[in-house]
Amino acid sequence: MGPGGVGHSRLTAHDATTKGDGMGELDGKVALVTGGTRGIGRAIADAFVREGCKGVVINGRSPEKGAQALREMNAGDRVHFISANVKERADVEMLVAETVKKYGRIDILVNNAGGGENHAPVAQLTDEAMQDALLWNFWSTFWGMRASLQHMLPQQHGRIINISSVEGKHGKPGVSIYVAAKHAINGLTKSCAQEVGTQGITVNCICPGAIETDIMKEAGPQAAEAMGLTYQGLLDWFAEEAAIKRLNTVEEVAAVAVLLASDLGGGITGSMISVDGGTAAF
Amino acid sequence: MGKLDGKVAAITGSTRSIGRGIAEAYLKEGAKVIINGRSQEKGEIALREMGGGPNVAFWQGDAMDQAKVEGIVDFAVERYGKLDIMVLNSGGVVNSAPVAMMTDEEWNLEITWNLNHVFWGMRKALQHMIPRESGRVIAISSVEGKNGKPGIPGYNATKHAVCGLVKSASKEVGTLGITVNAILPGLIITDIVNETGPATATMMGLPSFEAMIEMFAKESAIKRPNTVEEVGAAAVLLASDVAAGITGCMFPVDGGTLPY
Asked: For a designed S-S bond to B134, which of A182, A212, B152, B177 qualifies (C-beta 3.0 to 4.6 A apart)?
C-alpha cells in the first residue's frame, strides 16, 4: 500500500462527503467517466471524487440530468459535466480533449456508457439494432481508448477501465447485440493491454452482473420481452444464476474501479474482473 | 477510517512475502491480524517489524499440519473474539520434478501444502462464519492455477484444484453473507522464491533462476514480475464490506499474462 499507515483515511461508498485531503487512492488524478450522470458510471465518478481525483469529467446526452448529477455530487470544480453522445466519434474525441483542456491531463478513462435497444433473437434482428449497440458499446469504447492513448502514451501513465458485463463472458438469448458488443470490448481490452503493457498504462474490463440501475429499468422490459420473459423474470434469472442470489450494486463495481485506477493497480492489466456474485466461473 | 475497521483476519504463511504483504495491508486498513508460519523466530521478527502492537498476533504452525491450520481459527476467536477474514496463502514446492520423475513424497507434500491446507482452513473458517452469516475467505492461487508450465505439475495441479474448490464453496455459502474468492498472482520475487527459485528453474529445464524470472515476465503485458503490494491491494478489496457482491471470482494480479 502507499503511504498513509494506520488510520489511512477511507470513507465508505455511502459517505456523501468528499475527501481531497491528500489521503485518497487517486489523489491528483484526472478521470473521464462516460455515461457518468447515473447508475454505474455515477457511482464510479462518486468514488473517484472521494478518493481524491482533482478532476472527474462525466457526460450524458441530457443537460438536465447532468445538472442534477453535479448538484447531487456537490464537488465544486472537481466534477465537470459535458453534454455528449458517445455514439458520435466527434463527441467522444471532444470529451477526451475537453478533459485535458479543463484539468490539464487524463489519467483514467472509464468507458462506461452503453446499453441496447430493440433487442430481438438473431433470426429477427435488424441491422439497425446491431449497429446501434455496436456504436453505443463498442465503437464508443474504441474511440475513447484511441483518443486517450494519445495522451497516456507520452505521459507513460494511464488507466483504461472498460465496463463490460457478465454477458461479455456468457450469452443470453435475445440480447445478442449486447452480448456481442461486450465480448468485442473484452477482446479489444486484451489486445490493447498487451500493446501498452510496458508503458505504465493498464487496460482492464470489469464484468458486472445485472444491476438494477435507471438504465436497466428503462431498457430492461424490452430486453426481457426479446428473451421471452417478464422484466421481473429477467431480474430473477440473473439473480438465480449468481451464488449470492441477488443482483449486484453500483458500489461494488466502483470499488473495483478504484483498485484498477490506483497506483497499486499497476500490476493488473488485460483482466476481465468479474463483479457478478459468483455467476461466471472464469 | 480503514476499509477493514473492526475486522479480524488470519493469514497462513504470513511472516514473509505475499502473506506478510497482505497482513500489513490489513493492519493498515484497521483489522486485527493473526500471522502464521512454521518458525517461532521468524514469527517474532515479523511481529517486531510490523509494529502492530496488540493488533497483531503470531500463531506458530506448519500449513501441512491439519491441527495447526484449524487451530488458527480457534486462536483468532480466543485472541480477538471472532474471525471475519481467512486468507489461505501458504504454499509452494520443495523438490518439484517433471511428471515422469516426480516422487510420491513430493506429490503428496504439494497436495497437502497447497490443497489440503486450503481445504482445512476453509472448512474450519466456514464452520465459524456460517452461523455468523458473515465472512470472507480468500485463497491465494496463482496464474499457474489456470496455466501450465513444465516441471511444476504438482503446483499446477494443486493451484487449479484450489480454484475449483473456491468456485464450489462460493456457491454453497453465497446467500449467507460469505464470499469465497481466489487471487491469482503472477510471479513475485519474494524471499521464498529467491530461496526455492533456482531449484525450480532447474526442474523447469531452464538455465538459471534469472531465465525463469525472464520467462514469466515475458509472458506478461507489463514485462515484469508482480509485487506483494499489488496482491495486498486486491486482498483488501475482496475482504472489504463493499466486495459483498464479488464471489467465486478468479481475481488475476498477473500483469496481463492470462487475460481471463
From this structure: B177
